[in-house]
């Protein structure tokens, strides 16, 4: 049957659907040998590879809410009165990083036993950056692989959505959300050694009746459309694609965390037979 890889895509709060996917796979006895994650998927992938099981991860969700959003009010205020003040993101991202530190300590990604890859994007050099816990077999000259970084730093760099979150500086790089270049890391799962890849794609751009009353609403729609097109293209390289119907969940819509877990769980359960057949069970 070979090694089974899991590619967890980005999607903000909708990323909690990955927990439902993991739980359903575990209940069905389907092992995950390696895992790759982008953005919200990186948070789940990192904690899972570290050693937390699906039920433990689901148990952590109730404590996650808006208090983890450390808005950079001071910089925003200073910017209003002093044009020379630089504001790189509305949210610092440090509290979410601290959450990962609390769960993983100062563990470096190279210390993780389960093959893991977390994706980020180098804003200055327009290159994909992959944080990998083990050998990462690829032949893409546009990809830089880093194996020596704390897990928490790698996760923060992966979920640093431009404008919303402050970019992460690391060894001369300015890193932002991995979803910009690859929002469904199937290729990364393959590079970790996966023979079969299950991809979880959470991005969609279904028709809407919204009149788009603001610049931000238009920008948000444009981004979701581009990510959806990108994810569909990349996901075709997976052996099976799971697409839980999480609907239109806001990136930071925390009250919907548990609903998204349920969506991921039910969708995966409904496709267990298909998954096993595809994997050759």
TrEMBL record:
Q: Which SUPFAM superfamilies match?
A: FabD/lysophospholipase-like (SSF52151)
Statement: the UniProt record of this protein carries the keyword NAD? no
Q: Where is this motif: GXGXXG?
A: 10-15
Q: Which residues form the PNPLA domain?
A: 6-190
Motif mapping: DGA/G? 177-179
Q: Where is this motif: GXSXG?
A: 37-41
Which Gene Ontology BP terms does the record give?
Answer: lipid catabolic process
A GO MF annotation of the entry reads: hydrolase activity
**Catalytic residues identified in the record:** 39 (nucleophile), 177 (proton acceptor)
UniProt xrefs under InterPro entries: Acyl_Trfase/lysoPLipase, NTE, PNPLA_dom
Q: Name one Pfam family in it.
A: Patatin
Keywords of the record: Hydrolase, Lipid degradation, Lipid metabolism
Q: Which PANTHER family does the entry link to?
A: NEUROPATHY TARGET ESTERASE SWS (PTHR14226:SF29), NEUROPATHY TARGET ESTERASE/SWISS CHEESE D.MELANOGASTER (PTHR14226)
Query: What protein am I looking at?
Result: PNPLA domain-containing protein
């Amino acid at each position: 049957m070979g090694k089974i890889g899991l590619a967890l895509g980005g999607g903000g709060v909708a990323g909690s659907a990955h927990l439902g996917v993991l739980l359903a796979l575990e209940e069905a006895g389907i092992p995950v040998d390696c895992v790759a994650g982008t953005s919200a998927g990186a948070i789940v992938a990192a904690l899972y590879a570290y050693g937390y099981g699906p039920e433990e991860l689901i148990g952590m969700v109730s404590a996650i809410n808006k208090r983890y959003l450390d808005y950079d009010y001071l910089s925003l205020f200073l910017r209003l009165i002093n044009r020379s003040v630089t504001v790189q993101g509305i949210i610092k991202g440090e509290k979410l990083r601290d959450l990962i530190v609390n769960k993983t300590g100062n563990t470096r990604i190279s210390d993780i036993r389960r093959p893991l890859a977390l994706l980020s994007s180098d804003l200055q050099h327009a290159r994909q950056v992959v944080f990998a816990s083990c050998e990462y077999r690829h032949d893409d000259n546009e990809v830089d692989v880093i194996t020596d970084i704390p897990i928490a730093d790698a996760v923060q760099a992966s979920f640093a959505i431009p404008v919303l979150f402050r970019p992460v500086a690391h060894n001369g790089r300015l890193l932002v959300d991995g979803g910009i270049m690859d929002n469904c890391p199937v290729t990364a799962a393959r590079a970790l050694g996966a023979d079969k890849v299950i991809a979880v794609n959470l991005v969609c751009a279904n028709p809407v009746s919204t009149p788009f009353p603001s610049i931000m609403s238009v920008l948000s729609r444009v981004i979701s459309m581009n990510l959806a097109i990108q994810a569909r293209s990349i996901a075709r390289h997976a052996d099976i694609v799971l697409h839980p119907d999480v609907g239109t969940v806001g990136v930071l819509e925390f009250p919907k965390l548990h609903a998204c877990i349920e969506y991921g769980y039910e969708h995966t359960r409904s496709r267990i037979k298909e998954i096993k057949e595809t994997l050759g069970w």
